[in-house]
Design brief:
Layout: H1 5-16, E1 22-24, H2 26-34, H3 39-48, E2 50-57, E3 62-71, E4 74-83, E5 91-99
Parallel strand pairs: 1-5
Antiparallel strand pairs: 2-3, 3-4, 4-5
Helix pairs in contact: 1-3
Length: 101
């Protein structure tokens, strides 16, 4: 099954409505701290951003993609693994965060 960018964006937006569906890797948390990016800012990118890379099939049942969205004076990009399958749990795993300064 292929996942189009539009379909991936719809799924991510739907899942990101519930904060409990969004998980952060330690790497993402470190990058957020280093780059002064808050959890609400990441959620905003997930809820309003556009797909700028992918989606591409990752390991196991994960899809990977990156979303970008302009927030205040900078654009943030969030790379995620999308755990989405009809028979499995649905979750967003934030892999890393970067952006303009």
């Amino acid at each position: 099954m292929d996942l189009s960018p539009a379909a991936a964006a719809r799924i991510i937006r739907r899942l990101a409505v519930d904060d409990a569906s969004v998980f952060f890797t330690r790497h993402a948390e470190r990058r957020m701290f280093e780059r002064h990016v808050s959890v609400p800012e990441v959620l905003s990118v997930l809820r309003r951003g556009r797909i700028v890379e992918g989606p591409a099939r990752g390991a196991r049942w994960h899809w990977r993609c990156s979303l970008a969205h302009a927030l205040r004076e900078r654009e943030l990009t969030v790379a995620v693994a999308l755990g989405w399958d009809a028979e499995r749990s649905r979750q967003i795993i934030v892999i890393t965060v970067f952006g303009d300064r």
